[in-house]
Write a structure and sequence with these properties.
The complex is a heterodimer of chains A (329) and B (539). With 329 residues, chain A is mostly helical. In chain A, 60% of the residues lie in helices and 4% in strands. Chain A has one domain: Transmembrane di-heme cytochromes, Chain C (Fumarate Reductase Cytochrome B subunit). The longest helix of chain B is centred in the middle third of the chain and has 19 residues. Chain B starts with 5 loop residues before the first helix and ends in a 27-residue tail after the last helix. The chains are: A mainly alpha (329), B mainly alpha (539).
Chain lengths: 329, 539
C-alpha cells in the first residue's frame, strides 16, 4: 500500500527530527536544514519556471469553454473564451483564485439499461479550495514568528480566524479546516477505486507530509505549548541571517520545522510545482483571437506542400479532358 | 457492426484490474474491434515517412528500427523544448481525477487507461524516467518506467484510442489538454513507423490529389455535376458552381466527404443552393479540394504540409478571401494553426460579406470565414427568404462537434441558423452539449470499420443523450457541423438510436431556403416528403 509507506516515511522523518533535536541536533534541524531547503526551494522553483519559459509556445491553443467573439450581435463569453489578453489574464486569475474549472466537475454514473447520468459534483472543488485557502491563512499567521513587531494584518487574520472564541488558546478555524480538508482529499483518493488505481507515491506523500505538518502544528499550539518567545527568537534569527538556537525549545517544534523543511526541498521536484505552472498553461492563458491576430511560431519549419504546378502537371490530361481551366496549356 | 449486442456493450465494468497500470500488457488479438490497422507501407513511402513495412499489431515483432528507443528519446527531448504545453502538462498534473470520467472512451469501455490522466501517464512515466531527477533516482517508486516494447505497444493502442476531443481539458484545473499529449505522442510514434492506415492513407491521398478520399480532378467535377443534377431534381433550380476559376471573389473549401457520400452531400447541396440564391461570386477548387486535415492526427509538420494548398490556391486564383464549410477538425486547423503555419495571408483582403457588408473582424488575419458565421449574418440581416415549415417533418437537435466547440467556440451561430430554418429544435442535456459536448467516438482517424466496437463504446455517451431527446421530444434529426460526425454519427445512430438521422446544418438551410424559379417543393433535399404535403405550412 503506497499510502502506508508515505505515512511511515513522514512519521520516520518527524521522529528523526524529534530525537535528533533531543540528542543535541537543534542547530542542524533548526538552522542548517531550513537554510539548505530554502535554497533548494528557491533555486529549484526558479529553474523549473525557467525551463518552462525556455520552451516555446508555437501555437495559440486555448481550450474554448464558451461562445467565441464573432458577429457583433452574438454575445461572447469573455472569461471562458477570452478574445483579449486581459480576458485571458482574468481567466487565469479566476482559475487560480476560485478553481473555476474544477467547479465544473460532474460525476457520471451508469444506470441500468446503459444510461449515463451526469450530476454536478462540487466535493473535489470544495475540498481543494478549503485546503489551499486554509493553508494560505495558516502560512500567513506564521508571520507572527518571523516579524517583530507583528504586522497588524497578521493580527486581523488571527482575529478573523479565531472569530468564534472557542477554547483556550482560541481555536483557529483554519486549523480544523486544514486537517479536515487534507483528510477528505486523502479519503477520496483511497475510497474511489479508480483514484486508488492511478495514485502514485507522489500523490500520497505530499498529503501525508502536509498532514504531518498540520498535526504537529496543532499539537504544538493546543497541547504541548512550547515557549513561544524562544521559538520566535529562533525564527527571527533565521530570517535575519544571524541564526541562534535558544535552549529549551520542545523537540516537537523541530519535528514540525523539519517536515516543513522537507516540504520545501521536495516541492520543486514534485507535482506541487502546479502552483507555478498554473499560470503558464497555454490552454488557459492565451486569448482565443487566432483568426484576428497572427501568432508567430519562432521555429516555424519551412514546409512547402504539393504545389499547384506539380498537381497540374500530374493531372494535366484529366484536367484538360474535363474542361477545368489550366495555368499552362 | 460488431458481434456484440447493445445489451452486451452496456455491461461496462468500471472496476480497475488487479494488475498495476505500470505493468503493460495489451493482447491485441483478444482486443480486436478496438484498434485500427497500421499504415500501409505504400502510403508511408509516398509521404517519405520512416520505417515503411507491412506489419500487424498482433505480431510479436513490430519491426522497429534498431535504435527506436533512442529515436523516441531524442524526439521527446526535441518536443519538450518546442512545446511548452507538453513540458508543462507532463510536470504539473496532480492526478486529482477530475478528468477521469470525462472521456467518452472511458465511459464506454471502463478501461482505466482511457482516463485522460492515465493516458497521459503512459507518456509521463517515460518522461520521468528519461528527463527528471526524481524519476531517475526513484525509478518505479517515483512513477517512472523505461520505454520497453510493451510500453510502446501500449502507446500505440491508447494514443490511437483518443479522439483529441479536448473534453477533459475543459475540466482540468490546469487546462491539461490530452489532445496535445496525444498529438505529440503520435508524432513520436510516427518517428518509428507506428501509425494507422485510416490516418495515413487520407494524408497520402490529400497530399497527392488534394483531398483525403483521393478524388482526382475529373471525378471531382463529375461528383459536383451529379450533385447539381440531384439538386435540380429536388428544387427545380439549376446551380452552376465553378471549379478552379480565377478572379472569383471567394474560394470555397469544404471537407471532401461533403461531395462524396451521404449524408454529407445534402449539406453540400445546401451550400450550393445558398450561394446560388445570393449570387455569390465563388469558386471551388479541385486542387484545394479538402478542408479537413488528417495531418492533425499525424504531426504538426503534416498539418502544415496539407494545409499549404488552401492559401496557395487562394493566391493563384486571386480571390479576396476564403469561405469554409462545415467540418470539425478542419476548423481546429483553420482557426488555431493556419495563419501561424501557412500565413501571413497578406495577399487576401479582410473578409467582408458581399451580401450584407458585414466585416468579419474575427477573421481579419486568417481571412477565412466559417459558413455558419456567414449564414447567421445573412439571416440576421434578413437576406434569406426562409420557410421553416419545410423542416416540420424533422425534430432537430444539435450536436456540438468537439473542435468547433472547444478549439473555437462556435456555439451560437449554428443554433441561430437552426432555430431560423426549423421550428422543432430541442437541446440535449446541458452536460452533453456546448463546451461539454461528447465526441462521436470516431474522430482523429478512428472512424474505421475494424475499430467498430471501440467507436460504438466511445459514442455511447453521445448516443445516450440523443436517445434522451428522441424519447422525450421525438427528435429524429441530429444536426452537426462536422464531416466526420456526419459519417460516423450515422453509424452510431444506426446502432444505438436507429430512429435518428444525421445531417449538416446547411442541409436544413437548403430545405427551408425559398429561391426564385424553384418548383413547388414537396420533398426535402433527400427526396423525402415534407410534413402534411406542400403548402400546408402555417408559418
Amino acid at each position: 500500500m503506497r499510502v502506508v509507506w508515505s505515512f511511515l516515511l513522514v512519521v520516520l522523518l518527524a521522529a528523526i527530527a524529534f530525537f535528533g533535536a533531543e540528542a543535541g541536533g537543534q542547530a542542524l534541524f533548526g538552522v542548517v536544514f531550513p537554510y539548505v531547503a530554502m535554497v533548494v526551494f528557491l533555486v529549484g522553483i526558479a529553474a523549473r519556471v525557467l525551463s518552462w519559459a525556455r520552451s516555446t509556445v508555437p501555437f495559440r491553443i486555448p481550450t474554448t469553454c464558451g461562445q467565441q467573439r464573432s458577429l457583433p450581435w452574438i454575445k461572447p463569453a469573455p472569461l471562458d473564451n477570452p478574445s483579449t489578453g486581459r480576458g485571458a489574464a482574468a481567466r487565469v486569475l479566476l482559475e487560480v483564485l476560485t478553481f473555476r474549472s474544477l467547479f465544473r466537475n460532474t460525476r457520471s454514473e451508469l444506470r441500468p439499461g446503459g444510461r449515463f447520468t451526469f450530476s454536478p459534483d462540487k466535493w473535489l472543488w470544495a475540498g481543494a479550495l478549503a485546503f489551499h485557502y486554509s493553508f494560505l491563512v495558516v502560512f500567513l499567521r506564521h508571520y507572527r514568528f518571523f516579524a517583530e513587531p507583528v504586522p497588524a494584518v497578521v493580527g486581523w487574520i488571527e482575529g478573523l480566524d479565531g472569530f468564534f472564541q472557542v477554547g483556550l488558546p482560541v481555536v483557529y478555524l483554519t486549523d480544523i479546516v486544514l486537517v479536515a480538508a487534507l483528510g477528505f482529499l486523502l479519503w477520496r483518493r483511497l475510497e474511489d477505486a479508480r483514484l486508488r488505481y492511478l495514485s502514485l507515491h507522489a500523490d500520497y506523500f505530499p498529503l501525508a507530509l502536509l498532514l504531518g505538518i498540520a498535526v504537529t502544528g496543532v499539537l504544538l499550539r493546543y497541547f504541548v505549548r512550547p515557549d513561544v518567545v524562544r521559538v520566535k527568537e529562533l525564527a527571527i534569527g533565521l530570517v535575519g541571517l544571524h541564526p541562534a538556537v535558544p535552549q529549551g525549545i520542545s523537540p516537537l517544534v523541530f519535528a514540525h520545522i523539519f517536515l516543513v523543511t522537507v516540504l520545501l526541498a521536495y516541492f520543486p521536484f514534485s507535482k506541487l510545482v502546479h502552483m507555478a505552472g498554473v499560470f503558464l498553461s497555454p490552454t488557459r492563458n492565451l486569448a482565443n483571437d487566432n483568426r484576428m491576430r497572427r501568432h508567430v511560431n519562432p521555429w516555424n519549419p519551412a514546409i512547402v506542400g504539393h504545389t499547384y504546378a506539380e498537381w497540374e502537371h500530374e493531372f494535366h490530361d484529366k484536367l484538360k479532358a474535363s474542361g477545368i481551366p489550366l495555368d499552362e496549356e | 457492426m460488431p458481434e456484440k449486442t447493445r445489451d452486451e456493450l452496456v455491461q461496462i465494468d468500471f472496476k480497475p484490474p488487479e494488475r498495476e497500470w505500470m505493468d503493460p500488457a495489451i493482447d491485441f488479438e483478444a482486443r480486436r474491434g478496438t484498434w485500427s490497422y497500421p499504415g500501409a507501407a505504400k502510403n508511408l513511402r509516398y509521404l517519405g515517412f520512416p520505417n515503411p513495412r507491412e506489419w500487424s499489431p498482433t505480431d510479436e515483432d513490430w519491426q522497429l528500427p534498431e535504435n527506436w528507443q533512442q529515436i523516441i528519446h531524442d524526439g521527446l527531448a526535441e518536443r519538450l523544448n518546442k512545446y511548452r504545453s507538453l513540458k508543462l502538462f507532463l510536470d504539473v498534473c496532480v492526478r486529482c481525477g477530475a478528468c477521469a470520467d470525462k472521456c467518452h472512451f472511458y465511459l464506454g469501455s471502463g478501461d482505466p487507461k482511457n482516463m485522460p490522466v492515465l493516458r497521459a501517464e503512459l507518456l509521463r512515466s517515460v518522461y520521468r524516467n528519461d528527463f527528471t531527477a526524481a524519476g531517475k533516482i526513484l525509478g518505479r517508486i517515483g512513477g517512472a518506467r523505461k520505454l520497453t516494447p510493451a510500453v510502446l505497444k501500449e502507446w500505440f493502442y491508447y494514443f490511437y484510442q483518443c479522439t483529441e476531443c479536448r473534453r477533459c481539458s475543459v475540466f482540468c484545473p490546469y487546462g491539461i489538454d490530452t489532445a496535445e499529449i496525444t498529438m505529440l505522442a503520435r508524432e513520436l510514434l510516427n518517428l518509428v513507423g507506428l501509425n494507422i492506415n485510416w490516418v495515413i492513407e487520407p494524408v497520402a491521398n490529400c497530399d497527392r490529389t488534394g483531398n483525403h478520399l483521393g478524388i482526382q480532378p475529373h471525378t471531382f467535377k463529375d461528383n459536383i455535376e451529379f450533385l447539381v443534377d440531384e439538386l435540380e431534381g429536388a428544387t427545380g433550380v439549376r446551380v452552376a458552381p465553378s471549379i478552379n476559376r480565377k478572379g472569383a471573389e471567394l474560394l470555397f473549401v469544404v471537407p471532401s466527404a461533403d461531395y462524396f457520400a451521404e449524408p454529407g452531400i445534402y449539406t453540400f447541396m445546401g451550400y450550393l443552393l445558398l450561394l446560388h440564391a445570393l449570387g455569390v461570386d465563388y469558386t471551388l477548387s479541385a486542387y484545394a479540394s479538402e478542408g479537413g486535415n488528417f495531418g492533425l492526427f499525424t504531426s504538426h509538420d503534416t498539418i502544415k504540409r496539407l494545409n499549404y494548398k488552401i492559401y496557395h490556391e487562394a493566391k493563384r486564383l486571386g480571390v479576396k478571401w476564403i469561405l469554409g464549410g462545415e467540418c470539425g477538425h478542419m476548423w481546429r486547423v483553420i482557426h488555431q494553426y493556419m495563419d501561424t503555419m501557412n500565413g501571413p495571408a497578406d495577399f487576401l483582403e479582410p473578409p467582408v460579406s458581399p451580401i450584407t457588408g458585414t466585416a468579419f473582424t474575427n477573421a481579419a488575419a486568417t481571412k477565412m470565414v466559417h459558413i455558419c458565421e456567414f449564414t447567421a449574418d445573412l439571416i440576421k440581416h434578413g437576406k434569406l427568404r426562409l420557410d421553416p415549415s419545410r423542416n416540420d417533418h424533422l425534430r432537430v437537435t444539435f450536436h456540438d462537434s468537439c473542435n468547433p466547440a472547444r478549439a473555437m467556440g462556435i456555439l451560437e451561430e449554428p443554433r441561430y441558423i437552426l432555430r431560423s430554418v426549423a421550428r422543432n429544435f430541442f437541446e440535449m442535456p446541458e452536460n452533453t452539449i456546448r463546451e461539454q459536448t461528447f465526441c462521436c467516438g470516431a474522430g482523429a482517424g478512428l472512424g474505421n470499420d475494424e475499430n467498430m466496437e471501440m467507436r460504438l463504446r466511445g459514442g455511447l455517451p453521445r448516443a445516450n443523450a440523443v436517445r434522451f431527446v428522441h424519447e422525450k421530444h421525438g427528435v429524429n434529426r441530429l444536426a452537426c457541423i462536422c464531416a466526420i460526425d456526419r459519417a460516423t454519427l450515422t453509424t452510431l445512430m444506426e446502432y444505438w438510436v436507429p430512429e435518428v438521422d444525421v445531417s449538416g446544418v446547411h442541409e436544413l438551410v437548403g430545405n427551408a431556403l425559398v429561391i426564385d424559379g424553384e418548383k413547388p417543393r414537396d420533398t426535402d433535399l433527400r427526396g423525402r416528403p415534407l410534413a402534411g404535403g406542400k403548402g400546408d405550412a402555417d408559418a
